[in-house]
Design goal:
Layout (H helix, E strand, L loop, with lengths): L1 H9 L3 H23 L2 H18 L10 H34 L6 H19 L4 H12 L4 H8 L3 H19 L3
Helix pairs in contact: 1-2, 2-3, 2-4, 3-4, 5-8, 6-7, 6-8, 7-8
Length: 178
């Protein structure tokens, strides 16, 4: 029966297509609903499948499978395509939102806070011993490694590590950082 309706639909018979739709729409909708979950998307997909059947009924080959299997395959593919499209859209929106998010800053507050922090660091650096100051400044402001600081100051690497560690502990306590 469905084979005959598909053949007539391929010839442009609207009443055959309407009968085919009436007989299969619930199953097509059920397949789409299982994949998509969302009822409205499943309804849209059912309509898209119907349109595809109307347009490509001549391509149906009864030797390749049953009419219902053909319809379910079309419905499943359409539903999966819709899931992929929706996920792709969601991912795109998330990437756009993450990259285009504007975080408002109060430039005056940022500048003042930065200056106050810099002043605090300078004051706390003055509480270090001369050797700790030299070691910390070369390492953190000069970007030198322990070995490079040791070579520059003519001291052993373990000594430099101790000076920097002790200096940073004193800075931490002075700046009241937890």
């Amino acid at each position: 029966m469905l084979v005959g309706l598909i053949k007539l639909t391929a010839e442009g018979d609207q009443s055959a297509f309407a009968r085919l739709y009436h007989l299969t729409a619930k199953r097509v909708y059920g397949m789409a609903r299982r994949v998509l979950i969302d009822a409205e998307l499943a309804e849209d997909t059912t309509q898209e499948v119907s349109l595809q059947v109307w347009q490509s009924a001549a391509k149906f080959d009864p030797a390749a499978g049953s009419p219902l299997a053909w319809l379910m395959t079309i419905a499943h593919r359409r539903a999966v395509d819709k899931v992929r499209s929706t996920q792709s859209s969601t991912n795109r929106e998330a990437r756009y939102g993450a990259t285009s998010q504007v975080i408002e800053h109060d430039d005056v507050v940022d500048t003042v806070t930065g200056q106050m922090e810099a002043e605090s660091v300078v004051q706390c650096l003055d509480t270090l011993t001369q050797t700790q100051q030299e070691s910390v400044k070369l390492a953190y402001y000069g970007g030198l490694t322990y070995r490079e600081v040791a070579e520059k100051l003519g001291a052993a690497v373990p000594t430099i590590k101790s000076r920097i560690r002790d200096g940073l502990l004193r800075l931490k306590n002075c700046l009241e950082v937890s």
